[in-house]
Amino acid sequence: MFAREEEVLAAAARWRREGQGVALATVVQTWGSAPRPVGSHLVVDAEGRFLGSVSGGCVEGAVVAEATEVIADGQARLLEFGVADETAWQVGLSCGGRISVYVEKVD
């Protein structure tokens, strides 16, 4: 079961109140069999805790790793995953499809 949007945003607010760095990952484009729709969110703190989903488990690990880098350097990133990508087998989108995820630091 996926976390509801309000749970994801509440976690981001809670982690910020605790003084944690936070990044928000948002699905901005999909093609084919991507399991989560555009607008889906995943929130990550500097320790790597996360809540939400951008792919139903296919690319969350890679997104969390990038999100911790975004927290550290403050530079937003557009991540692309898909079967034509060299990381397709590594992150699990072998069933087809493509997903773009925008990751930004929450201030």
UniProtKB/TrEMBL annotation:
Alphabetized InterPro entries for the sequence: MoCofactor_Util/Proc, XdhC_CoxI
Protein known as: XdhC family protein
XdhC- CoxI domain sequence ranges: 15-82
Region forming the signal peptide: none
